[in-house]
Amino acid sequence: MSITRDDVINWLNACGRVLAENKDYLTQLDSDIGDADHGANMDRGFKSALAKLPTAADKDIGTLFKSVGMTLVSTVGGASGPLYGTFFMQAGTSAANKMELSAADWAAALEAALNGVIARGKASLGDKTMVDALTPALNAFKQAMADGIELSDCLRRSAAGAEQGMKDTIPLVARKGRASYLGERSAGHQDPGATSSFLILKAAVDTWVK
After folding, report:
1. Could you say which of 82, 142, 156, 193 is the most buried, measured as most Cβ atoms within 10 Å of its Cβ?
2. Report field, pTM of the whole predicted structure over 0.90
3. 3-class SS letters over the chain
4. pLDDT, tens digit, for every residue of 150-168?
5. Residue range of the domain that includes 181
6. CATH no. for residue 58?
7. Predicted local distance difference test score (pLDDT) of residue 175
8. Number of domains in the chain
């Protein structure tokens, strides 16, 4: 199994649908510890990115990711635009000129994306951010690869890692972003960025794993 350019296009469209379906849920999570705009911002950003996707549909996977990333940076407010924009642009740099991705290629793209987010947001594991979902997702994928497991199950384990990381943000005290202003009161709430990261990675499983 490999991930083709058409698979990537289908995934990006699935991300748009999932974020639209969960817009109110993400906004509710963000209303507890943030500016109550995460769901609306992500929905708007992906709608804009997908509207531009047909102009890049015949390009390589790296170009597709970069197109999405640049659109998110220019259309999404708050921290989400720069962070998710960086996520996709760094993934695009890793996947430059590729028309399909192997398991190792996807691992490299995800790692580049995570490192970009960490560098941009200056966040670490445990700060109650999207990094808390993306880090275990990457680690689970790489461990599954090392265990010799096929790509479909690597993707499933990665999404499960992201889901657990998302849930693990609930008791954390936020140390970055708007939520950090609440101090101890941020504990007890699930991080919206970690949640949208999980939704995006789960969409990959739902799209690519038959």
Report:
1. 193
2. yes
3. CCEEHHHHHHHHHHHHHHHHHCHHHHHHHHHHHCCCCHHHHHHHHHHHHHHHHHHHCCCCHHHHHHHHHHHHHHHCCCCHHHHHHHHHHHHHHHCCCCCEECHHHHHHHHHHHHHHHHHHHCCCCCCCCCHHHHHHHHHHHHHHHHCCCCHHHHHHHHHHHHHHHHHCCCCCCCCCCHHHHHHHHHCCCCCHHHHHHHHHHHHHHHHHCC
4. 999 999 999 999 999 999 9
5. 3-208
6. 1.25.40.340
7. 86
8. 1
